[in-house]
Amino acid sequence: MALRIEDYALIGDGETAALVGRDGSIDWLCLPRFDSDACFAALLGTPEHGRWLMAPTRPARIERHYRDDTLILETRFTTETGRVAVIDFMTPRDPQATLIRMVVGEAGEVAMRTELVLRFGYGATVPWVTRTEDGALRAIAGPDMVLLRTPVALRGEDFHTVGDFVVRAGESVPFVLTHGASHLPAPAPPTDPRAALAATESFWHEWTSRCEPAGRWTGAVKRSLMILKALIYEPTGGIVAAPTTSLPEHLGGTRNWDYRFCWLRDATLTLLALMSAGYYAEAQAWREWLLRAIAGAPQQAQIMYGVAGERRLTETELGWLPGYEGSAPVRIGNAASGQLQLDVYGEVMDALHQARRGRLDSSEAAWAAQRALIDHLATIWDTPDMGLWEVRGKPQHFTHSKVMAWVAFDRAIKGAEAFGLDGPLDQWRRIARTIHDEVCANGFDPQLGSFVRAYGSRQLDASLLLLPAVGFLPPSDPRIRGTVAAIERQLLVDGFVRRYDTTTADDGLPPGEGAFLACSFWLADAYVLMDRQDDARRLFERLLAVRNDVGLLAEEYDVARQRLVGNFPQAFSHIALVNTAYNLTRAEKPVEQRAEREHDVPADVG
Fold first, then answer.
1. Which domain holds residue 309?
2. Taking 80 as the threshold, does the pLDDT of residue 598 lie above it?
3. In the structure, how many helices (H) and strands (E) does the chain have?
């Protein structure tokens, strides 16, 4: 059985990533891209579905950490006879995926065992294993080829590749795994592993040195930004939501989704986090990916795309994998890519508006694309949709969706006025006013004193915390204060925020999920806007405390079990952490930058 989700750490190379367990087992790796088939899939099954173990043969005390401000993982094993460190890292991609594991003797001597179980096709395919002329172990199945180079003598046992060796103080034993296409010659041996380690360490030190400070939370911000950097597909600038699929939102449940794709709704918060931290090159690349992804007929725009902008993300269930802790089914692809979710129009318009305000390079093509999107939105904004939580029930008139439709027109107006761009401003103002009036009339429940999840509903939704953040109403408005108070009463569980009540909501799925961590950060941001600074800091510290021992967050937190749940690590959680940290420490706060006030409808409307 796989470890707890929080027992994993991440290493990556800018095109894919691996999860390394506290026990020294790499249980998840897709090659050569984030969304490729996994060759190690024990995370969602058993060791027979693929893993790579590197650990002492006798019981050991285990400690681990990332080396300084890098994504180089050091796992230290102390046994009765000695101490070793296993150093795991992936070199920045040039040109093939390279994963290096170095076992370094620090004291005495330690008997070690490595067990490599390569299973291509998400654990379904046993490869053909041979030796190359230079002694490397080569495994081939279909289009994939993996080579392992090490001085350790390896042997086959029951379709596993194993090796036993002893490491003494001062010794270093390398293992270098590289991926290539099976129809091409074997990839050339990489540079010396020690030189690769030094180059990788230098890469991360240079990158993290550019991070803008966030007071006493600078370390947490740096770690979150490193995770975000590791989730960027460098060739295109696309950012995957997580490197994993089907880690459950409820242990043993069916809310298991593939997150190895790029969501448009993450666009604005991602841009704000990157620009606030000083990473304008990554922000620019994300903006360019966004423009390429949405290019084409606006009525064909999707809510998510592949890392290079692929549109076909067909959802399939993998019946041979039992799922993480029995959480089935395991899914690849994501059927939500075909849903209508109106909020993404507001996100795209807001992201491109914030990019202009942040002085990212712009073009006439960008505004032309925005004009096409806003013209299409004008014809569909009053249509029921599936909402930002991608429900699998019936379409509804979700309040947040309508608010984000208003954001789309509001940002179009601001873009035209602030940057001299052309557009039918009077028409956009009329539509924005109509949407605003409708939301205030149909999305607000006077008896609850709160905005509600959908028109005609009395349920709450954590997405309503974003209303002041996007500038729909000022934080001082009694309807906003009433909404925050209602969410505190009904959606808080031991201080953490649920997205909504899954036991009563019609979302087409069985009930049960953890508290959504990004929503809890949104509550902290709302506290900042409402000048509840002490509440914001307390909640922020509480959220930091549920990070795992190396600073990583999943999508959700199971309060009852005190465990991380959902795909891991989750970009949205770490983006929210970065923005909240800057909201708490900056005079120019990302949440206030987004909520420009000059075109806001007066607070007494509706």
1. 214-380+390-418+430-594
2. no
3. 14, 28
Preceding omega of 32 cis (within 30 degrees of 0):
yes
Whether the CB-CB separation of 360 and 471 falls below 8 Å is answered with no
Residue percentage of the chain with pLDDT more than 90: 90
**What pLDDT, on a 0 to 100 scale, did the predictor assign at position 597?**
52
Per-position DSSP letters for 369-430, written without gaps between them: HHHHHHHHHHHHTTS-B-TTTT-SS--B-BHHHHHHHHHHHHHHHHHHHHHT----HHHHHH
Query: Which run of H or E residues covers position 481?
Result: helix 478-490
- Cα 472 to chain centroid distance, Å, stands at 27
pLDDT digits (tens, 9 = 90+) for 120-152: 999 999 999 999 988 899 999 999 999 999 999
Looking at the structure, do residues 155 and 44 belong to the same domain, yes or no?
Answer: yes
Final residue belonging to a domain, choices 182, 199, 230: 182
Sign of CA dihedral 517, 523, 528, 532: negative
247 CB neighbour count, 10 Å cutoff: 31
The helix/strand/coil state of 560 is: coil
- Which residues have CB under 8 Å from 496's CB, separation 6+? 515, 517, 520, 542, 543, 557, 559
Q: Which is it for strands 144-149 and 61-66: parallel, antiparallel or unpaired?
A: unpaired
Q: What is the pLDDT of residues 187-222, one digit of tens each?
A: 877 679 999 999 999 999 999 999 999 999 999 999
The answer, as to whether pTM is greater than 0.85, is yes
What does each C-alpha distance from 575 to 10, 131, 464 come to in angstroms? 16, 44, 19
Closest by CA position to 266, among listed 346, 187, 336, 195: 346
Residues 250 and 106 in one domain: no
For residues 165 and 225, state if they share a domain: no
* 243 lies in some domain: yes
What tens digit of pLDDT does each residue of 523-555 get?
A: 999 999 999 999 999 999 999 999 999 999 999
Domain match, 148 and 15 both: yes
Spacing of C-alpha 330 from chain mean position:
18
Of 182, 201, 231, the one marking the end of a domain is: 182
pLDDT tens digit sequence for 99-126? 999 999 999 999 999 999 999 999 999 9
* pLDDT recorded at residue 606: 30
| Residues belonging to the chain | 606
Give the model's pLDDT for residue 366: 87
> Tokens in use for 52?
């790579």
Q: Domain check: are 90 and 224 in the same one?
A: no
Q: What spatial distance separates the first Cα and last Cα of the chain, rounded to whole Å?
A: 55
Pair 229, 104 in one domain: no
